[in-house]
Request: fold
Amino acid sequence: MRTDTNDSWLARALARPEPEDDTARRILDAALEQFTLLGVRRSSVDDVAKRAGVSRVTVYRRFQTKDRLVEETLLRELSRFFARLDAAVAGLPTMKERVVEGFVVALRHTRAHPLFGGMLRLEPEVVLPYLTVQGGASLSATVEYLTGHLRRAQQVEGRPDEDPRPVAELMVRVAVSFLLNPSSCIEMEDAEQARAFARRYLAPLLDA
Reply:
C-alpha cells in the first residue's frame, strides 16, 4: 500500500465526503465486503468488480491500482470511525469525560469493525506494519485528530495553553497497544473496566 504525507492522510480522513459517483460508492462498498470476507491479499480487483457488478476496467478507471482501491476503502472507513467517535462523545461536558468514553468507544469499534477488526484477525501480517513500523501516517492522523480536540478543550475549559500533542500521542499509543495485544490484567472487553482504566490512567494526563 502506498503512503501519503501525514497532512494528506489527516485532511482526507477527517474531511472526506462520500464519492459523488454512484459507481465509485458501489465499488467501495464491494471492496469493503470483499476485504472483510477474504482479506486484502486473497482479494483481486476482479473479485471486487464482480461483487460490485461492474467491469474490471471500470474499477481501474476510478481507482487506477489495487493499492489505491485498498487505501480509498480504508480512508472512507477511517472517516466514518472519526465521525462515530465524535458523535459518541459530543454530549459529554468535559474533556476528561470525553477522553474516557472515547477510549472505550475506539477500542470497541475498532475490534468490532468488519474491516479493521477483520484484518487484524485474518491478515495480521498485513495490518501490523501499518500500526507499528510503517504506521507513521495513520498514527499522525489519529494524533492530530485528538490534538485538535484537546486544543479546543483548553480554550473552552480554561486549561493551560500548552502543546497537547505529546499527551495526545501517548493516549493514542496506549490505545494501539491494547488493540495489538488485548491480553492484560485489565479486561478491556468489559466497558466498565476499560472506563475505569481510562479514568484512572489517561484522564489525569490532561493535568500533567
Q: What stands out?
A: Residues 1-6 have pLDDT under 50 and may be disordered. Residues 127 and 134 are 10 Å apart (CA to CA). The chain is about 70% helix and 0% strand. The longest helix spans residues 66-89.
